[in-house]
Design a protein that fits this description.
Strand content: under 5%
Order of helices and strands: HHHHHHH
Distance between the termini: 31 Å
Length: 161
């Protein structure tokens, strides 16, 4: 790998080294996130289906079903991206825009789950509300671990030490 040689070359400036490291970090972030997409998409769809099938009255009457629409759409975008990239070799370059898009997509899905919880809890009995909160919270933390390679998401992830 040429970049590894450039990192040890004394003639290379610190700024160039920083650019190489930053580029490699973005590539690694993208590869790690891409590898977790199937479990995240499946988790989003299955969790949504569980709530719709086990709590249909609460989900529909509270309007929480509308919070599931962006979850399905954003998860579908991630699934489409995964399918198009799954058999390709490791990328040579990943843009800042791609990493930013991944972060925004994750944030929007999380925000949609928060809206779902807020709406469903207001219309459910104590048991159903508890199950909704626990289900969405457990799912959120499991997804958080899988996107922990993104710096902003990793601030919320449990410490590994």
């Amino acid at each position: 790998m040429q970049d590894a040689n450039l990192l040890t070359d004394n003639a290379v400036s610190d700024q160039t080294r920083a650019q190489i490291i930053t580029r490699e970090i973005r590539i690694q972030q993208s590869v790690e996130i891409q590898s977790t997409v199937p479990s995240q998409v499946t988790g989003n769809w299955v969790t949504a289906a569980v709530f719709v099938f086990f709590f249909p009255a609460i989900t529909v009457s509270s309007g929480a079903i509308f919070a599931l629409v962006p979850i399905f759409l954003l998860s579908s975008l991630a699934a489409r991206s995964y399918i198009s990239l799954r058999n390709r070799p490791r990328p040579q370059k990943v843009s800042r825009r791609r990493i930013r898009f991944i972060g925004i997509n994750s944030f929007m899905i999380g925000l949609s789950w928060a809206a779902f919880s807020f709406l469903a809890v207001r219309h459910g009995d104590a048991t159903a509300s508890f199950l909704v909160v626990m289900g969405t919270t457990a799912f959120a933390f499991s997804c958080l671990v899988s996107v922990s390679s993104l710096p902003k998401a990793s601030l919320l992830a449990p410490s590994r030490s």
